[in-house]
Design a protein that fits this description.
single chain; 138 residues; mainly alpha; Four Helix Bundle (Hemerythrin (Met), subunit A); 5 helices; 83% helix; 0% strand
C-alpha cells in the first residue's frame, strides 16, 4: 500500500476520533464527577492522540521522511518541518498519554483532563486542520 493511500486512510480514522473527542469534551465539562465518563474520556483522548501521531508519521513518510518510528521522532521531525508549533507540549501530551494508559491514579487523571481541555485538545485540533488541508490539496 502506498504512503499516500495509507495516510489518507489513517486520516479518516483520525477525523472520526477527533470528532468523538470533541463530543466527549462537551460531556466531560458537564460532569467531571462521573468516574465512568472520566475513564471513557481519557481513553478517547489516548486513542485520538495515538492516531494523531501515527497519521502524522504516515504523512511524513509520504513526504519522503524515513526511519521515524517512535512518536518522539515523528514529533521532532514534524516540528522541524513546521507541521506542529510546540514540540515540547506534544511530547508532554505523549508522556501523559503513557501515564494514563499504564496506571490509574485519580489525581493524575484530573490533571491530565485539565491539560486535555486547556492544551492538548488544541494541538490535536491544529494538526487535524493542517492534515485536512493537505489532504484536500492533493
Amino acid at each position: 500500500m502506498g504512503y499516500k493511500i495509507k495516510w489518507h486512510q489513517k486520516f479518516e480514522n483520525l477525523e472520526r476520533a477527533f470528532l468523538r473527542l470533541t463530543e466527549a469534551i462537551d460531556r466531560i465539562k458537564q460532569n467531571m464527577q462521573d468516574n465512568l465518563l472520566v475513564a471513557g474520556f481519557i481513553q478517547t483522548y489516548e486513542f485520538t492522540l495515538e492516531l494523531a501521531w501515527k497519521t502524522l508519521k504516515d504523512y511524513l513518510e509520504e513526504q519522503g521522511f524515513i526511519e521515524i518510528e517512535s512518536p518522539k521522532k515523528v514529533l521532532r521531525t514534524a516540528f522541524k518541518e513546521g507541521f506542529i508549533k510546540d514540540c515540547e507540549l506534544w511530547l508532554k501530551a505523549v508522556d501523559d498519554r503513557n501515564l494514563t494508559s499504564h496506571i490509574y491514579n485519580e489525581e493524575i487523571a484530573k490533571q491530565v483532563i485539565t491539560d486535555i481541555l486547556e492544551k492538548y485538545y488544541f494541538i490535536i485540533q491544529d494538526l487535524y486542520f493542517i492534515l485536512k488541508e493537505n489532504k484536500n490539496d492533493e
